[in-house]
Write a structure and sequence with these properties.
The protein has about 230 residues and is α/β, with parallel strands linked by helices. It has one domain (about 5-220): 3-Layer(aba) Sandwich (Rossmann fold). The protein is built from 7 helices and 9 strands; from the N terminus they run βαβββααβαββαβαβα. The strands form 2 sheets. Strands 3-2-1-4-5-6-9 form a 7-stranded parallel sheet, with helices on both faces. A two-stranded parallel ribbon has the order 7-8. Helix 5 (about 160-175) links the parallel strand 7 (about 150-155) and strand 8 (about 185-190).
Length: about 230
């Protein structure tokens, strides 16, 4: 029988984070789920503890012990308005939270980055995500899982033209994305959330593990299979 667990989720109001919170609360293995958020959630559950905090001033006392920290923080340059603000959310905050988790003795940090994450990338977004991965690895966490989804599908609260257009293109091209190209298939946010829980509960423990999008889809296949 699997030991009962507790989890912390940061970025619980986003596309993946909001789905992850619901799935964790529905999972019998988890008896306690803490969401650290900047604004109150519109979701409630008897297992769920909500801590409204300013990430800029997050301290070790704000982090209770848990078996996993799921980090789903992320924004866009358009929403952040400046590169500095974008990097704060997508780089500085996750790195700081990982540092606090390590001090607290939390054994596993699971973080969403990006499919093209690379610290030397010419693409700014991928470069920031790659820098985050690099610095998290250097932080020497007990266990680090890097989740690299492709384009996310799901109901967002805000309209993102680039993602909407990208989603249309990938949907049309989906039947052609096979073999080595399978990793470029768009993925449902709910699948990413399910895969992250599978990584925590069932995957072999590794010091640092990278999960590209096609592996996430294999861990959490869609309920209704797409027609080939």
């Amino acid at each position: 029988m699997m030991n009962l667990r507790s989890a912390i989720v940061v970025g619980a109001t986003g596309l993946v984070g909001s789905e992850l919170i619901k799935q964790l609360c529905e999972c019998d293995t988890y008896v306690s789920v803490t969401a650290i958020v900047r604004h109150q959630l519109d979701f409630a559950h008897e297992k769920l503890i909500v801590k409204v905090r300013d990430f800029e001033y997050l301290e070790e006392k704000d982090i209770d012990f848990a078996h996993e920290v799921y980090c789903c923080l992320g924004t866009t340059k358009k929403k952040a308005k400046t590169k500095e603000a974008f990097e704060q959310v997508d780089f500085s905050y996750p790195l700081h939270i990982a540092s606090l988790a390590k001090k607290k003795g939390i054994p596993h940090f699971i973080v969403i980055t990006a499919m093209g994450a690379k610290a030397t990338s010419f693409v700014y977004y991928n470069r920031v995500k790659g820098m985050l991965e690099r610095d998290l690895i250097e932080l020497d966490l007990p266990q680090l899982s890097l989740v690299r989804p492709s384009l996310l599908k799901g109901p967002r609260k805000e309209f993102r033209l680039g993602e909407r257009l990208g989603g249309v293109v990938l949907t049309i091209a989906q039947p052609l994305l096979v073999g080595p190209l399978k990793k470029y298939r768009a993925i449902e946010a709910s699948q990413v959330a399910t895969a992250m829980i599978c990584i925590a509960l069932y995957e072999k423990k590794q010091k640092v593990a990278i999960y590209p999008s096609h592996i996430l889809q294999s861990l959490a296949p869609p309920i209704i299979e797409e027609e080939e």
